[in-house]
Specification:
With 273 residues, the chain is of the alpha/beta class. It has five helices and nine strands; from the N terminus they run αββαββββααβββα. It has helices at 2-22, 82-97, 154-169, 172-184, 248-268; strands at residues 57-62, 66-67, 103-105, 112-113, 119-120, 127-152, 187-207, 212-234, 237-244.
Length: 273
């Protein structure tokens, strides 16, 4: 009687596991909406340099940045055209500099070239300049590292044991049940993908009144994201849940802009008035 109960329970177990392995979690459609801003995991806090009443307001113009990076994007990421990266980062640098309390960003079209390499512009009371920021993008890359882990096989071993027991006792039903459980071989799979972005710029702060390079500095930013996938497989079939955090390269760019603002504001403090 016990043997018969065991034979009946094992197919039921296999069937139950098959249903569990193939079941899918209902999708939560409440999150499929448009929202302002970015997910928390994708945010790099924007730096703000407060206004210092003891300093003048420095009038700064940003020139398009050259692109001399030789980095690459691995892991299937989409890479912008190289010719678009320099102007794009220059535009982001302008946005970052507007967060400097003592920095007034000037449209390059308002610069007056005096023909000898120097520049002038219209200034308001309390302003000095103009100053120019020029330079090059020297790092622009993203790398990906993947890892995977499998855990399971406990019921596969149970099926093998049941099959051996059936062969020893001469029970055909127990042998077939054991083979079925062993073939199911439930396995829990987990994989992780780490992406690391790196952006760097070499900038020069030029005094437009004298065409002298007042300061030169390297600005950089890094950002790492993690994506994970996990799921249960049965007979090689199963669902997978995936989570993704953020764009590593985009957030590394924002971190580099924060560094550029910080260093530019510091360099301007020692510029001639």
């Amino acid at each position: 009687m016990m043997k018969q109960a065991m034979v009946l329970s094992m197919p039921a177990l296999v069937f139950g596991l098959l249903l569990a392995g193939c079941a899918t979690t209902p999708m939560d459609t409440s999150q499929a909406q448009a929202h302002e801003g970015e997910p928390v995991a994708a945010q790099v806090a924007q730096l703000v340099v407060p206004y210092d009443p003891n300093l003048p307001r420095f009038v700064v113009a940003v020139e398009p940045l050259d692109y001399s990076a030789s980095g690459q994007i691995s892991g299937g990421g989409a890479r912008p055209q190289d010719k678009d990266i320099g102007p794009g980062l220059a535009a982001q640098l302008i946005t970052a500099l507007t967060k400097g309390g003592n920095i007034s960003v000037l449209d390059r079209a308002a610069l007056v070239n005096k023909g000898d390499g120097t520049y002038s512009c219209s200034l308001e009371p309390g302003e000095v300049g103009p100053f120019l920021i020029k330079g090059a993008v020297t790092e622009f890359n993203e790398t990906a590292e993947a890892s995977a882990k499998n855990r399971g096989g406990s019921l596969g071993r149970a099926g093998v044991i049941a099959g051996i027991a059936g062969a020893v006792t001469g029970s055909r039903d127990l042998t077939l049940t054991g083979a079925g459980v062993a073939a199911a071989n439930p396995t829990y799979e987990k994989g992780e993908m780490k992406r690391s972005g790196m952006v760097a710029m070499d900038l020069q702060l030029v005094d437009g009144r004298s065409a002298r390079i007042h300061s030169s500095y390297r600005c950089s930013g890094t950002f790492t994201t993690m994506s994970s996938a996990s799921g249960m497989s049965l007979f090689g079939i199963g669902g997978t849940n995936t989570q993704f955090a953020a764009s590593a390269l985009g957030q590394a760019t924002r971190a580099a802009m924060n560094d550029a603002l910080r260093q530019t504001a510091q360099a301007l403090k020692s510029c001639p008035r």
